[in-house]
Write a structure and sequence with these properties.
- The chain is mostly beta strands.
- It is built from 1 helix and 10 strands.
- The protein has one domain: Beta Barrel (Porin).
- The strands form 2 sheets. An 8-stranded antiparallel barrel has the order 1-2-3-6-7-8-9-10.
- The radius of gyration is 21 Å and the shape is elongated.
- This is Outer membrane protein beta-barrel domain-containing protein.
């Protein structure tokens, strides 16, 4: 009798585990959103505002961990027609600084409403003269509703110059 009860409890626990993982996967598949950022470091000499698009696809490994892919578009607006490179001042029509990140994503969920994570990969330079570089984006997020998340992140692209910013974003989960 004890053995039969034990087997039934194990089967029930496995069923609950699979159903909760299935709910988790449904909640975190495709993500799309926007963010706005304030550049600092070298890039702050040329730009004071950035806006971007965030896209991602995540797979739940467990209730606590997601992995996935992240991409999107980042556009830092150049704030003047004169760029100062120390002793050299260059005048002209400078393009906005643009990147398309291609990254692996990792998220840790200490609670249902709170998440920590990072996107790590390469940011492809879009505008002329932009070579791209290593892309790193640690993120802290919170659920506003069942399918909406707000987040704050630090973005770093290791290019020929220091492209760094702090961004505030909103994501919609599908």
């Amino acid at each position: 009798m004890k053995k039969k009860t034990f087997v039934l409890v194990i089967i029930a626990l496995i069923a609950v585990s699979f159903s909760s993982m299935a709910q988790r996967v449904d909640r975190t598949n495709f993500k799309a959103g926007i963010h706005a950022g304030v550049p600092f470091g070298d890039i702050s000499d040329y730009s004071n505002f950035e806006i971007g698009l965030d896209l991602g696809y995540h797979w739940a490994l467990s209730e606590l961990v997601d992995v996935g892919l992240a991409t999107g578009f980042m556009n830092a607006f150049i704030n003047n027609d004169t760029v100062d490179f120390g002793p050299v001042v260059v005048e002209g029509d400078f393009p906005n600084i643009q990147y398309i990140p291609v990254a692996a994503a990792f998220r840790l969920y200490p609670t249902y409403d709170f998440k920590l994570g990072a996107d790590v990969g390469y940011a492809v330079g879009v505008n002329d003269g932009n070579t791209g570089g290593l892309y790193l984006r640690p993120i802290i997020g919170a659920n506003v509703s069942g399918n909406t998340e707000i987040n704050i992140s630090y973005v770093k692209v290791s290019d020929d110059y220091d492209f760094s910013m702090v961004a505030l974003g909103i994501l919609f989960l599908f």
